[in-house]
TrEMBL record:
BP term (GO), one: lipoprotein localization to outer membrane
InterPro entries: ABC3_permease_C (IPR003838), Lipoprotein-release_system (IPR051447)
Main location: membrane
One Gene Ontology cellular component annotation held by this UniProt entry: plasma membrane protein complex
Protein name (database record): Lipoprotein, putative
Family indicated by similarity: Belongs to the ABC-4 integral membrane protein family. LolC/E subfamily.
Keyword Nuclease on entry: no
Location in the cell: Cell membrane
Source organism phylogeny: Bacteria, Pseudomonadati, Chlorobiota, Chlorobiia, Chlorobiales
Domain of life: Bacteria
Amino acid sequence: MRQLNRKLLRDLLHMKGQMLAVTAVVACGIAMFVSMSNVKYSLEMTRADYYSRFRFADLFVQLKRAPEFTLEAVRRIPGVAIVAPRIVTNVTLDVPGLDEPATAQLVSLPDRGEPALNGVFIAEGRMLDPSRPEEVIVSKPFMKANRLKPGDHIGAVINGRWKRLLIVGVGLSPEYIYEVQPGAFFPDNRRFGVFWMSHKALASALDMTGAFNDLSLTLTHGASEKEVIRQLDRMFSRYGSLGAYGRDQQLSNRFIGDEIRILGMEITVLPTIFLAVAVFLLNIVLQRLVSTQREQIAVLKANGYDDEAVGLHVLGFALAPTVAGVLLGTGLGAWLGSALLRLYGDVYNFPRLLYVFRMENALGAVLLSFGAAVGGALAAARRAVKLPPAEAMRPESPPVYRPGLFDKSPIAHKLSTPVRIILRNIERHPFKSALSVTMISLAVAILVAGRYTFDSVERMSEVEFGSRHREDVTVIFNDAMPPSVANSFASMKGVLEAEYYREEPVKLTNGYRSRRQTLKGLQKTDGLQRLIDSHDRPQHLPHQGLLLTTTLADLLGVKPGDVLHVDFLQGARRSVEVPVAGTIDEILGMSAYLRLDELNRLAGDGGALSAGVLKIDASKSAQLNDRFKHTPGVAGIMMLQALKKSFSEMIAKSMNTSTFILTSFACVLAFAMIYNGARITLSERARELSSLRVLGMTKREIAVILLGEQAVFCIAAIPLGFLFGIILSTLLAKALSSELYRLPLVFTPANFLFAFTVMVTVAVVTGALVGRKIVKLDLIAVLKTRE
């Protein structure tokens, strides 16, 4: 076997270019599998560790106000393990160095000891001193964005009274891994943060002594979450409960959960493409190897090497680049996974990131790659094993060529000789040509799909911050205000336009399907806030009935014309039947809309408003901002341009990174296919091309014959790759969409131009490398070779 090993090493060195190309493709596929698998597992472990160490709750309840004596009844509910009451409210802030008003969510902490649930990690500073009511702990993202430190002061309007708060610590909580302002989807860490305050101080400020408005619970093992939620809803309905819900509906947990789900899908799709290409490359390389080494195989068998030894020898040509690809890809995947996890750490707030390199992932990579190697080498190894020594000593019978469809066409004789040779050869090997085009098109598809996510998020930004929202400021009220009070914002100096809307928590029911949802009543849909679907088309509210997002309608199993049972969860708690008038395909969230006057009628009150949207005079913004900071009754302020900037910065970082990675790997894939195709064609037709040189053809004409075939493949692969890219992007859009957001299908000319430019660049570079081989072609040595 030592002689076979020496032969294997010698042949591998002779074919080093092709073997390196296969190694690179395998390495890319394994790197993607290892990195994404490790990142997915690391995120899961980081989240589980965080939830466990800081006692993240299983159930949550928000309500208006409930007396503390009700807690004993909650503890007696079967399945309830730990009950943690607290006070939560939103307030307006005056932050040093920030012209606009900011918003804080104040959360109470026990006066003694740590909270039983939803603990706080102190990243810097110390815990609260209950004897000092002005002390607060502030969330780390807010501190970092505003360049604050323990010892700094912040002004806040709490229950209509101005307070000067002292920052004593920097904290994080598992409840706010993804920290966004209530009512928003995108973080604005400069203008929204979470503040923790002693229970006694916050209860005193809000006149909530002996009461609570927020409840967290954990369940015993095997407890029925559905039954506990049912009893909690029954118990707290009289106290303005908006309905209990589990972790699966907690906003922060849903965002990180969706991210982990997306990673799981990417693990399946992208590595599969690369390993499929590796199988194809190995197959055509080894099939060609067996053809050119027929005599050597015959000699090996004649000298006593059995079929098993010959088969393993051929398999060694596949295993060598595969082993190298596994080693390189595993190392690259480990490094890339660590870098990607740090990128997730910039978006999601963890006290520590646990990067775990799982040996199971490495083993899975080995199995996948060796499966690809065996799959690619199997046909060639079987062919070598079945080849009788006597037959192998003779050259292969030359193929019988007959005029094909191209030769019979009227345009054949009008083309130059090199072009006729190219087209005739493609016609004579249709299956091989089709596979080559398909494999190259997969690289184009990856480029298109990689840019699609970027374009999709750009469209999301354009729709949300351009077409749908035209306001400058959204003012959210602490409690629903009568129109006469709320409309006072329109009279402020510097306010150019003002609109208002009402939101009412309800339970929508259709048969056995139900959903807790917010009904949003709008004054109009062609002003500052508009109804825009995912295709950027304006929609209008019906005169009567509900307009549901398509996702919500599908979840409830309703269509236009059906009737929903609506239970109001606040106020008079009325129950009404409301028809579904239509649906709208929105990008973000799930919503139920109707006219403001219709919502007021259904609620059975004189009308109330939850928030206002304002268009302001830029020259008066400083005065307005100062007034907003000190206005009582305001729970939060959202600045549209600030949200857009924060969203763009967050998306740009992650999307640029993912696009760069996918582009790099797609270039490797394209290069490997084009280079291997050209090298194999050169080895198969070296004698033919040398003969043509002797007969008078120039090096340029020979290069056209060799590289022209690959050029035809590339030209054919680009539109096919565009089609595959659209299909892959469509599948990704469906797979990655959730209740929180839907990726719109957007394919811009820039996307296809980008993929086209990358492919042409790779083809030109590859052609230049192979062209050097043609220049150095030894005519005499090639013509002496007997095929």
